[in-house]
Amino acid sequence: MKPPLSIALVHDWLTGMRGGEYVFEAITEIFPRSDLFTLVYSPGRVSPVLTTPRRHTSWFKKIPGIDKRYRSLLPLMPWTIGRFDLSGFDLVLSSSHCVAKGVRKKKGAVHVSYVHAPMRYMWDRYDDYFGPGRAWPHTRLAARLIRPHMQKWDRETSTKDRVDLFIANSTYIAGQLKEHYGRDSKVINPFADHARFSQPRMPGRYYLMVSAFAPYKKIDMAIEAFNRMKLPLRIIGDGQDGAKLKKAAGPTVDFLGQLSNSAIADIYAKCRAFVFPGLEDFGITPVEAMSAGAPVIAYRRGGVLDSVTDKTGVFFDEQTPEALMAAVQKIERGEIKIDEAACRAQAARFSRDKFQREYVAAVREAWGAAGKPLDILDERISTGWAGLTGNA
The pTM is what? Predict the structure, then answer.
């Protein structure tokens, strides 16, 4: 009798449920009887699916208040992720936006890494996090000193002997992997929970943003644009730039904080259009907006080009208040009219089922390319997931 296939699932940290965590949840659903490895784990903040696998966390858990302080340990993360013992696992499936893809597999094991972004703090988003005015001087100095070493580690852990197959979450990220790592990748886009957005569309006067308050999201630019246009903008979310953004907001900008999924769905359904001014790796919120039938106003660069089309949104080409204002005015003046049905149809292309089937097919391809018997993998998949491999 053949021994069961041992699988390790790896994610950077699990301290809440955002786009990357929902993707990891979907992967875990396919391979539920696996071991889960992550630097920091907050069971009360993640879905039940992510509480069932056997869990392994790092020594970070011994630090008081680590749930809120883990990002300050970025310089130690490469070393720490490499300390996980994966010597007993035949298949490693990582979900990485920072260091998860840097785990060490045993000789002969297969590692498939789904990348939401290369280590964004140290590559293209460095200035967004550590540029002038973005961090304390001592933090900026430390980041500048460690950046070359972090980039070197990131490249060294992206070679073929460490990662058998890269999966990028967008065409844009596939380009980033090629540029930074010299590696080709498959593109498998994330998904939205379309059942949340089935209510009728009843557009009102306000525009909407749903976002973490991080620098690269360009919420400050949107606030300036809507202040100047004196049009209503509602913003759902919170984050590190909250105090500064609220101080900059005029009387037509409302901050709604964190809301329930049902409340967010209701606001999506009633917004005039969804505003997406940042350069994103993929961006699931535009898909959610389209699923609710709402048009998207987006910066024409990044992962959003995989989801939004000229039939479902309005693009602008410069990250300036003026460019965003011009795009908004096209909707205000009725120059561009977006069909609700077209938005919902486009969003439907990004489903959980489609993601899981494409992911299974990619893992099978990598496993087979390594000369491994597919029947062992297929048996593991079929016992853990409702989607049969033969239909993947």
Answer: 0.89
Contact predicate 273/296, CB 8 Å: yes
Q: Which of 285, 264, 265 is nearest to 347 (CA)?
A: 285
Is residue 27, in this structure, part of any structural domain at all? yes
* Residue 196 DSSP label: G
**Integer CA distances (angstroms), 239 to 280, 354, 356, 387, in order:** 17, 31, 30, 37
239-251 pLDDT, tens digit per residue, is 878 899 999 999 9
In a domain, 59, yes or no: yes
> What would the two tokens of residue 146 be?
């460690």
Angle, vertex CA 370, rays to CA 368 and CA 375, nearest 5: 35
Residue 359: strand, helix, or coil: helix
The beta strand positions in the chain, using DSSP E, are: 7-11, 35-38, 54-57, 91-96, 110-115, 165-168, 186-187, 207-210, 233-236, 253-257, 273-276, 296-299, 313-316
Of 28, 48, 47, 26, whose CA–CA distance to 37 is shortest?
28
Residues 57 and 135 in one domain: yes
User: CA 194 to CA 197: how far, in whole Å?
Assistant: 6
